[in-house]
Structures are given as structure tokens and as C-alpha cells.
Amino acid sequence: MTFDAPVLIVGGGPVGLATALDLGRRGIASIVVERDAGTGTELLAKAGTLNERTMEICRFWGIAEAVAKCGFPDDVNLDTIYCTALDGLYIGGDPRPATSDRAPPAGAVEMLRKCPQFLFDPILAQAAEATWKVTLLYGHRFERLEQDDAGVTIEASELATGTVRKLHGRYLIACDGAGSRIRRALGIDFPGRMLSYSVSAMIRANLADTSFGIRNRYMFIDENGTWANLTSVDGRQLWRFTLVGNEQKIDPAVHDIGEDIARAFGAEIPFEILRVLPWRRSQCAATRYRVGSVFLAGDAAHTTSPTGGHGLNTGIGDALALGWMLHAVLTGQGGPALLDGYEAERRPIAIRNSSISTENFTSWIAAADFAGVLAPGEQGDAARERIGTEMSAALQQEWTSTGVGLGYRYEGSPLIVPDGTPAPPDPSETYRQTARPGHRAPHAWLQGGRSTIDLFGHGYVLLRFDPAANIDALIGAARAQGLTLAVVDIADPSIASLYERALVLVRPDAHVCWRADTAPGDAAAGQVIRTVTGY
Description:
By secondary structure, this protein is an alpha/beta fold. It is about 30% helix and about 25% strand. The chain is built from 14 helices and 23 strands. It has helices at about 15-25, 50-60, 65-70, 115-130, 180-185, 255-265, 310-330, 340-365, 375-395, 395-400, 400-405, 470-480, 495-500, 520-535; strands at about 5-10, 30-35, 50, 80-85, 90-95, 115, 135, 140-150, 150-160, 165-170, 170-175, 190-205, 215-220, 225-230, 240-245, 270-285, 290, 295, 300-305, 460-465, 485-490, 505, 510-515. The strands form 5 sheets. Strands 5-4-13-14-15-12-16-19 form an 8-stranded mixed β-sheet, with helices on both faces. Strand 8 and strand 9 form a beta hairpin. The chain is globular and about 80 Å long. The model has no long low-confidence stretch (mean pLDDT about 95).
């Protein structure tokens, strides 16, 4: 079979574009089939927070600076305000400093950033096209697929003309969203929980002169708990207003969300509704992430309540995983079991992250006893102070979730050689670095202002902290396997202490896959290399 590209990608949202970008930077060509006429053409009321790990990945892709300068003001505080309305009663708050007053948390080389999806997607698309390995096929809808041992063939129809094109690739990645037609065509189940039906509206409003001023988020609360929230999109006048919803579908043609916004804003604050989008809040995960040469990624593989902002960030992790794994297999550096590792590693992370997001959503409506929140006088003041304190305590893991982004680990992966050390705790809010196999390699600053994280991304890297360690067997095993292996000697004792072993092998995704204090012999070295490369 002659391939139009080694990799076909259906869905040109952030995960599809990110996968194409990662592949392109590794020299692998792809074609992205996208139904919309372009990227970033609409003000989407979707994701806007990129966590520390995603920003590290953007650093590897060369777009971290573009994201940081996307336009969200550095001087806007990332506070959350709990209130009955913008012109109503103050309940409490969670102060968070502006970007200009923050630094990366301990163990991180990059800090969390705000970048709305309608700005993030074009950054990804521009960087992907700049690799000269990515073709963005806009205005085309996926219709059907066939696969055999040689690869995958898909049909895509041009929406403007109805013309059907056949595209051939060795692999296909489905990034076509929660309702994935590819997932359904493959017969993959998508079990999980339906949390609520909701409606979001992208609105324009000037809140600078309101009693609370411009903050990152407002949570609107009545006697039943949180009923809506308002999140800043651009740090200026664009906002995403979201109803918490319930088990009943909300039809925007019948339900006037403008009345809800007016309730939250008060009578004196004007606003303009730009777009209304009904959606379903759910926690689901595909039972399989791979069938033959077809892979699921992003929302096609897992759905997550947006409470915490973990959905997009989890999808970016999928993109990185598929990028380095497919590159390894297509260049002969990865064996047949390497691609099986994608599901084994990424599916548990999706379930972990989505479960945390569901806990956050539950806290919105069940974190406190909301009785008396609207009561007047001292009794009401006391109730509101109590409720604000309880809300703040319950939602800390949503507002501060460094551990979610940096602390995930590929426990039990067939591509990781365990060293027998016990798994450390996995808190959502905090992160403690470890070089235990399966975990992200620790960050430390090297001479010249580079991070250890900057050493990783393009291939396997063997860190040697003991110059006397004989690594000939590992180098020989890698060479015999056709594996590109870089060796980096580090003499800094503080970094050696952080990595805990004399020899540490790190994968292209910056996860430790093997470590030891003594160099292995020929047989053991060969087994290590075969395991971590899927041979």
C-alpha cells in the first residue's frame, strides 16, 4: 500500500493538532482531517488552562513562549469569588496571585498558564505547519474506515462539494471528540457516568467596575449550592458562563440562558451573549484505546468534567505518548509491544484524572450546608462565612492541582522496568519529585540555564551520575536494537541525590523507565533495552 502519510488524524482540535505537531517535530508526516473551515475561527466556550506538565510539553514543542504571550494579562489575579451574584452578597474567596506574581511550583520548570482554546489551537496549528510535515485538510468530514495488516484507509467527504477522498496511512488516530464516529465504528464501548446536562455561554461584559472587579472565576451560590459559574476567558471582557445543570437536558431554544446570566450579574451590569452551547458533563473512558492500527486520543478516549481543567491536559499527554511511540515504531526503534503500552499507560491516567474532576464537581454542590446563605443580618453573615470557609477547603484540589499534572506515574506499565521501590503517595494538590521508574524525571537546573527536562524529548537518554560506571553493555544493547541513545554525564551531587541512582534511563516523554546503582551485564542490558522499547 502506498501511504498518503504514515499517520492520519481525524479531528483538528487541540489534541489532533498537538499529535500532528509532535509527530512533525520528529520528522513523521501526517494528515489532519478537520470538519471545520479553519482553526480558531470561533470563540469556543471550552478549555483555557494549561497545567505545568502541559507547559513543559509546549516547551519541548517550542511554543511555550507563544502560549505565555497569547494575550491573557499577566497582572490579572487568578482568584475565585463565592457570591450570590455580582451585585449580591459576598460568601468567600480563594486568592490566587497573578502570573506576574507567581513562579513555577517546586519541581516544575514551567508554570500553569491561561490560554483560551481559540488562541491555543492556532498556536498549535501554526507550529505544526511550520514542521513541513503536517497537512491540515479543513472542511472535510470523516465517513468510514477500513484496515488490514498493511494499514488504514479512510474516506473523507469535502463538505463544500460532497467530493469523497480516500486517504491511506499506516496508522489512524481518532481525535474526533466524545461522540467519536471512529470509536463507534470500531465497536468500542464507552462506559462511565453522566454527571449533568449543562449549557455554557460565551459572553462579553465589562466587570472592571463591579464590586468584585475582574477575577478569574465567580461561583454563584444559593440554598441548593453552586448553580452557575463565570470564568474569565481572556482576562478582559470575554467570559464563559456555565450552568451546573442537572439530569434533564437543557434546550437553548427553550431555556433562556440570558435570564440566568441576568440573575448572576444583577440588573445594572450589561452583557452580550456571543454563543450558546449545550453539552453533557460526564466521566467516561473507552474500554480499549487501540484496535489494530487505530488509536483513540483526547475526548474520543475519555471525557472529564471541566472542574479542574484536566480534560485538555490529559489529552495533550495522549498526544505526546502517541507521538514518540509511533515515531519509534515507524523508524524501527520500537517493537510491536510498544504501541500496546499506549493503552496500558494512558487509560489509567485518564480514569485517575477524570475521577478527581468528578470529585471537584461533587464539591460544587455538596461541599457545605448551604442553609442560610441568603439570610439577612448577622445570622446570614455567619452562615456565609461558614459556607465560604467550607467551600474553600473542599475545592483546594481544584484550584491547586500541581500533583495531578506532574505526579502521575505509569504504574505496572509493560514498558517500565520496576526497581522494587514502593509507590509514593499521589496527592492532587502537591507534587514531590522522584526518579522512581514510571514517574516523570525530576527537574533541576543545569549550567547555562537549562533544565534536566530540556535533555529529554527526542530519544532515550541515559543519565550517568557515576563516571566510573561502565555503560558499554547498555550502549551495545541499544546499538544492536537500532536505538538512538544519548549519554549525559552529570557531576552535580545535588542532582545525583535527586535522581537517587548512579544510572537512570529516561524515555522521549521524560519518564524514567529504568534505573540502577550498578551497570548491567550484557544479558541484563539487552533485557532492559528490549523491555523499554517493546521488543
